[in-house]
Design a protein that fits this description.
With about 475 residues, the chain is an alpha+beta fold. It has 4 domains: about 60 residues, no CATH class; about 110 residues, Band 7 domain (Tetrahydropterin Synthase, Chain A); about 150 residues, no CATH class; about 110 residues, no CATH class. Helices cover about 60% and strands about 10% of the residues. It is built from 11 helices and 9 strands. The longest helix is centred in the last third of the chain and has 74 residues.
Length: about 475
């Protein structure tokens, strides 16, 4: 009985032990996957849809029962790998070799398809080996990206460069089950100094832009101050001119001329002030522009500054000469106008005097005609009678200075006309005196009938009676 009980207890213990061993075995074949690892179960793990065997089963997180004898397992570490890639002498699209030291961070991907690639190509490799493999891929793709870009793009547009590098490198890394976590380009240099020149150019541009901004603000302030000063001086000059014009309204023409002259001077002063301020503002602006260019070429700045000074000075002298010439011309015009007004006034006064004289004479002649019973001939005869003594005096004056010391006439008798030489001499002497009828004709008048009638050519003139000289020649006085 005791033996039977003992055997039954031993059997139960054996069964329990077997059960425990089975449970321990089963538990020992269950593999849990940590979060920083990938569980790769390989062996007979299933079939694909086309009937081919699945190479491995990748699990990230959770647990998996690994069948004994037909399955095995390994873990792949997800720890990121930091790879230093000191790329040197990489050829850019411009055929300029550059150095691109950079650091890439990669790791095994947890995407299902990419995990399968990692299980097929990286399983069993150490991290150092994986790192070297990834480094070779990164070197090749980095050179490829640099060869398709200009240095300006690589240097100035880092985002585009990093995006191109990430796309190319990650595409190749996925083929072996890795993913690109981060890219950090520390610096980009070249042996030719091209990138340094670009940096200096950018720095110079930034400095010049800042100087230009400051210069523009100073220029705006100077222009505003100059405009304010100009407006003030113009207002003062205008007020002074207005006051002077008001004071000179009560003065004579000379005072008006002075007021005009002062107004011209005020205008000239305003123009000169405006021209000086404008020239000063322009010179200041050109000076700042020259300073900006001086960062690129100091010699050019000095030349431009010298040219600006000469041009501004010449412009000021030109404006000054133009203003002085305008002032002189205006003075001459006003003087000429004053002289012309004086001449006109004088001639107008003389014309008024002549008109008054002629008007009085006409009125007097009309009264004379009225007194003669509207007989104009009688009135003219009266006037001629008044002037007869004067006319006779004129004829006397014509022969007054003729001196006859002695006249000797040899009369040789009568000529074909019956006239003697003596008669001819007396007749010629009388004809040398202008007849009164000719005097009247010169004045546009007709000789009154009571003074004699003009002898026509048909009528024969009466031969004057001249005593005949004795035939015996007279003795000539010595």
């Amino acid at each position: 009985m005791f033996l039977a009980g003992f055997e039954a207890a031993g059997l139960i213990i054996a069964i329990i032990a077997i059960i425990v061993m089975v449970l321990v075995f089963i538990v020992s074949r269950i593999r849990k996957c940590p979060s920083d690892k990938i569980l790769v179960v390989y062996g007979k793990v299933g079939k694909n849809t086309d009937g081919s065997n699945v190479s491995a089963a990748c699990i990230h997180g959770g647990a998996k029962f690994v069948y004994p004898f037909i399955q095995a397992y390994q873990y792949m570490d997800l720890t990121p790998l930091s790879i230093s890639v000191d790329l040197t002498k990489a050829l850019s699209r411009q055929n300029i070799r550059i150095d691109v030291p950079s650091r890439f961070t990669v790791g095994i991907s947890t995407e299902p398809a990419i995990m399968m690639n990692a299980a097929e190509r990286l399983l069993g490799l150490h991290l150092d080996e994986i790192q070297e493999l990834a480094k070779d891929i990164i070197f090749g793709q980095l050179r490829l990206v640099i060869a398709t870009m200009d240095i300006e793009e690589i240097n100035t547009n880092r985002d585009k460069f990093l995006e191109a590098v990430s796309d190319n490198v990650e595409t190749e890394l996925k083929k072996i089950g890795l993913r690109l976590i981060n890219v950090n380009v520390t610096d980009i240099t070249d042996d030719s100094g091209y990138i340094d020149a670009l940096g200096k150019e950018a720095a110079a541009k930034a400095i010049n832009d800042a100087k230009k901004s400051v210069a523009e603000k100073n220029r705006d302030g100077s222009i505003g101050e100059a405009n304010a000063m100009r407006d003030q001086r113009v207002s003062v000059a205008t007020a002074n001119a207005t006051a002077i014009a008001g004071e000179n309204e009560s003065l004579a023409d000379i005072s008006k001329t002075d007021a005009g002259r002062r107004e011209i001077e005020a205008e000239s002063l305003r123009r000169a002030t405006a021209a000086e301020k404008t020239a000063a503002a322009k010179a200041l602006e050109e000076s700042y522009v020259a300073e900006q260019l001086a960062e690129l070429a100091r010699a050019a700045r000095e030349k431009a500054s010298l040219e600006a000074d000469v041009i501004v000075k010449s412009e000021i002298d030109k404006q000054k000469k133009v203003i002085e010439a305008e002032a002189v011309a205006e003075t001459f015009r006003r003087q000429a106008k004053g002289k012309a007004d004086g001449i006109y006034s004088k001639m107008e006064a003389e014309a008024r005097g002549t008109f008054e004289v002629l008007s009085k004479q006409a009125a007097g002649f009309k009264a004379l005609v009225d007194a003669a019973g509207n007989d104009s001939d009688s009135a003219v005869q009266y006037l001629i009678a008044q002037k007869l003594e004067t006319l006779v005096g004129i004829q006397v004056e014509a022969i007054k200075n003729i001196k006859f010391d002695n006249i000797t006439v040899w009369d040789g008798g009568s000529n074909a006309d019956g006239k003697t030489q003596t008669a001819n001499f007396a007749s010629g002497l009388m004809k040398s005196i202008p007849p009164m009828s000719d005097l009247f004709k010169m004045t546009g008048m007709e000789l009154p009938s009571f003074l004699g009638k003009e002898i026509k050519k048909e009528e024969k003139p009466v031969t004057p009676i001249v005593e005949k000289a004795p035939e015996k020649p007279a003795k000539k006085d010595k």
